[in-house]
Structure prediction request, 446 residues.
Amino acid sequence: MSESGALIQRQGDQVDVPLSPVSGRFPLGLGTFAAPTSDEPESCPDVRPYGLRFATIMDRSSVEVLPAWQFCPQRQIAVVTDEPTKPWYRHWQAEGSMKTTGASPDGQGSTGNEEWTPDYTGDAAG
Amino acid sequence: MSVLVLSEDFDPTVDAVIDELHRRDVEVFRCDTAWFPTRMSLAAELGGDRWEGPLVTEDRCVSLMGLRSGWYRRPTAFVFSDGMSGPERRHAEWEAKLGFGGVLADLPLLWVNHPSREADASYKPVQLATAARCHLTVPPTLITNRPDAVRRFAADQRGHVVVKPLAYGSVFEAGGRKAIYTHALTTEELIDLTGVETTAHLFQRAILDKMFEARVTVVGRRIFAASIHADSDAARADWRSDYDSLRINVVDLPPEVAQGVVAFMDALGLMFGAFDFAVDSDGVWWFFECNSAGQFGFVEDATGLPITAALADLLQRGHV
Prediction:
């Protein structure tokens, strides 16, 4: 595998080459409810990437709590926990809350901003 | 023949498509890669020139030979037993990726989209150059870690510059999550460029006379175009920042843009793409990006465009 050039060995561990990495093939993201959290504060301005200056804390003033759901292995979709015959996505539509089609990755309710949940999340995201 | 759907357990967009496939009596095998290896097993054997064998969960089983199409939606990372050490887990992750992932990626299915094409398309510089080659109109763009290059670029654009992330639209830090929206830079923000040198940044000419934005969803050869009108300053800069202010309607796509979009899909080998454009007062459609696993439910809900049905059509047919 290391002879392909796509993966190099370094001190006994595998390290991706920066471009066209093996990790980029069959890319896997983090689950919606398994997103990372970090208590690390911002670094000093000399170190912090310029683009992160404009990162803004999510406005949670209009957070909506998602109805409880559970995965139905027979139908292979999420159903409403209290009404297992009802598909969760239709219930959500009926509530008139289809601002987005996704849920909050941090499990704190939908902010309506979930469209920016990464469309593609490579393995390094964790 | 079954449709393979790879995504996490909670994905309402997927649920709607699966419901549609079930209404058509199409067999579906939905799973998440996170189920492998603890909740899902694979026994693939090279039979001639392709992989054969079963993919098995607690509730169902499908033969790799019995698949007609695959929807690579939003599968998540493999999950291993808690008892593994760090080195063991890293070893297991690589083995699973190249073994399980390799078998699936080699299956001769209609992929929406093929995992490797998905990975290629995630590089925004590739998208922007591909779009330009496909005769889509792309805003002047600079990718750099040099402050002097930013100043020169900003001068060329008369100071009308935005900065936007190349990859993730959010960051987790200080115990919370922050959004990274497209940001229109002020004169002051262009003076102090400390931090530009720390990594790659994408700067782009701001589209000042933007009339509306558009989300163009492509499924196979079918194109669904919707305009997104924003009624707040925040949403005019980045419509994701204020959903409540949006009005989403069906819009006609100029033929030359439709041709460019189809050429883009062909160039990157994509079967599904959710394109973002801005349309200015001259009627120019400015290409921003293509989300190869983008959301479309919110467009369908607002406009009635039958994107779910189109995706079900494609997956059911197993060919374009």
Q: What stands out?
A: The longest helix of chain A spans residues 88-94.
